[in-house]
């Protein structure tokens, strides 16, 4: 289980997380929703060791993550797909995936698993990442994160700007990973996507999780959407 307890931190002198607490059970999809600037992306960056922390704890299956250098966090089994994807544009699809494999010493078997999830990447292994379409780049970003065989996958608005067929592919991939026991933390603003995927939804406001609901308690007209997201 991934657990954040009372996490505080920010950028320079600005505190953006103010007692952020969340439990992410294994094999479940946890969605984070909230207005822009609420702290959703900062929470993911805190997990990955990319945010200055001033308090609280972050653990994965009881192992403290807060003290790890940022480059060591993926080796603990956490994959991260940030907004903007951050691919190595001049490198090929194959080279981007190989970097993911090297993170935890995974080999051809894990690469084949990723290519089975995204067959289009197999067709473009020699193509430079920067020349892929937006949807293909998102496939590659997710595929690279999956190359380290994570137990937890963090996705920051992966469907943003994509056509419906790509959004559906990402949704199906998350559900397949869930069936395989991978926990996913998904930052998402589309209520319909959240309701199709989530096991639990955390509404984030002012740097903390204000409310958490199991999916069964949420309908499209639930007041929490208007209260915390404005939709």
TrEMBL record:
Annotated ranges, domain ABC transporter = 2-231
**What residue intervals traverse the membrane?**
none
Q: What PROSITE patterns does the entry give?
A: ABC_TRANSPORTER_1, ABC_TRANSPORTER_2
Q: Known Gene3D superfamilies for this protein?
A: P-loop containing nucleotide triphosphate hydrolases
Say yes or no: keyword Transport present: yes
Stored CDD domains: ABC_TM1139_LivF_branched
Record's protein name: ABC transporter ATP-binding protein
Q: Which UniProt keywords apply?
A: Amino-acid transport, ATP-binding, Nucleotide-binding, Transport
């Amino acid at each position: 289980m991934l657990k954040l307890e009372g996490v505080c931190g920010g950028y320079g002198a600005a505190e953006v997380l103010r007692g952020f607490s969340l439990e992410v059970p294994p094999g479940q999809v946890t969605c984070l929703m909230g207005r822009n600037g609420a702290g959703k992306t900062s929470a993911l960056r805190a997990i990955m060791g990319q945010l200055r922390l001033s308090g609280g704890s972050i653990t994965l299956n009881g192992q403290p993550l807060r003290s790890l250098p940022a480059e060591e966090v993926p080796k603990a089994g956490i994959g991260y797909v940030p907004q903007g994807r951050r691919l190595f544009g001049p490198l090929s699809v194959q080279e981007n995936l190989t970097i993911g494999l090297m993170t935890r010493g995974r080999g051809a078997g894990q690469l084949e698993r990723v290519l089975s999830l995204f067959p289009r990447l197999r067709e473009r292994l020699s193509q430079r990442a920067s020349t892929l379409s937006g949807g293909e780049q998102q496939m590659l970003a997710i595929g690279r994160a999956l190359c380290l065989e994570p137990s937890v996958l963090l996705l920051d608005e992966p469907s943003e700007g994509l056509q419906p067929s790509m959004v559906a592919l990402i949704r199906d991939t998350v559900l397949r990973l869930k069936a395989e026991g991978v926990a996913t933390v998904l930052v998402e603003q589309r209520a319909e996507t959240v309701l199709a995927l989530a096991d639990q939804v955390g509404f984030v406001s002012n740097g903390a999780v204000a409310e958490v609901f199991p999916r069964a308690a949420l309908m499209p007209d639930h007041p929490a959407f208007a209260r915390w997201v404005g939709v």
